[in-house]
Amino acid sequence: MRTCDFLVVGGGVVGLSIARELRRRHPKAAVVLLDKEDGPSRHASGRNSGVLHAGFYYTADSLKARFTRAGNLAWTEYCRSRGLPLRACGKLVVASRPADLPVLDELIKRGRINGVPVELVDEKQAREIEPRAKTLSRALFSRSTAVVDPAQCVAALAADAAHEGIELLWSTPYLSRSGKIVRTGEGDIEAGCVVNAAGLYADRVARDFGFSQKYRILPFKGLYLYSDEPAGAFRAHIYPVPDIRNPFLGVHVTVTADGRAKLGPTAIPALWRENYGGLAGFSAAEAAEIAWRQAGLLLGSGFDFRRLAWEEIRKNSKQVMTTMAAKLADGIESSNYQRWGKPGIRAQLIDIEKKTLVMDFLLEGDDKSLHVLNAVSPGFTCAMPFAAHVCDRVK
């Protein structure tokens, strides 16, 4: 039987970052990482926007505020040291209606409290930053927001992990747990400590260890609509003022690492955990459980799930998506946006007792195991400092 000091379940950006941090802190320890897929970043880590957020959306008492700015700096240094694509394009958050202006001012306030470089600019200055941007009266400019190629970044982390002596077990699904023994598709592993970073399945793994009793993963499908305009059509990201009561940032214009543009994302309630397309990955048991959870939220959630779900389902229409984006920027023509990218699934945690979305990172565990139950956006940006935080909790 294979044995190790630390076993990390999940080969996405968070799992790989945790494994590398464990290795750095415990150079003589045996660190093993397993994942059911044949390589890294097959799910959310390789399918997200690649935006390196700055950290102005979040209240100062949140873990997201604590780690986003540090994560932005860490990724910037990592990409430059490894020669990975990095576009330091900045972000404009624009107002479309008078009701947006107080929220915009709140974001400026949060950014300054969090030590994030943010600027309040007028309409003329916004146009100088991004000539196609449309805003009412004023906008927020985040100079430090950037974008990377997420799949390339996670592949580099995996290569570094292997070079550092971490044993990477791809195509090795987690099956169950019995005492110190973790049963996998490739045999049993005896682990001193298990760190669960299984993303869409984190709650399921955690329950095998007695945790996540009041939490469940509710998957949301994210889609981007890609532009056929040439690279350079946009200089900067353009985001709307968000509804800060929920964790989604609304339809925005994202500049990709290669300089092209895309609109999105959606946050459509998914029907099962890996509901990427067709019936691939379909599980009747998952679909039934998720339908039950969604029905409960529709009937009596602690937030307006009915409105949120309807707004997101509408975004499946290219016309709706381009119409929404046209409020942010000039020259958004539906004829230039006809190609959907590959979907991603957001592993959003819900509190099943309060019937609310969990807005911040969440860990549960003891001296034998630690479970990353919620690491949604900006989880990619925060991965490295968040990994250090997780390792501080590992006994």
Task: Write out key terms for the chains shown.
26% strand; 33% helix; 11 helices; alpha+beta
Q: Could you characterize what this model shows?
A:
This protein is an alpha+beta fold and 395 residues long. 33% of the residues lie in helices and 26% in strands. It is built from 11 helices and 23 strands. The chain has helices at 13-25, 44-47, 63-82, 100-113, 123-129, 150-163, 202-208, 284-300, 305-314, 318-325, 379-393; strands spanning 2-9, 31-34, 51-52, 86-87, 91-94, 118-122, 138-142, 146-148, 167-169, 174-178, 181-184, 187-196, 215-222, 225-226, 237-240, 252-255, 261-264, 268-269, 339-340, 344-351, 356-357, 362-365, 369-374. Strands 1, 2, 9, 10, 11, 12, 22 and 23 form an 8-stranded mixed beta sheet that branches. Strand 16 (252-255) and strand 17 (261-264) form a beta hairpin. The longest helix has 20 residues, at 63-82. The protein is globular, with a radius of gyration of 21 Å.
What's this model, at a glance?
The chain is an alpha+beta fold and 395 residues long. The protein is 33% helix and 26% strand.
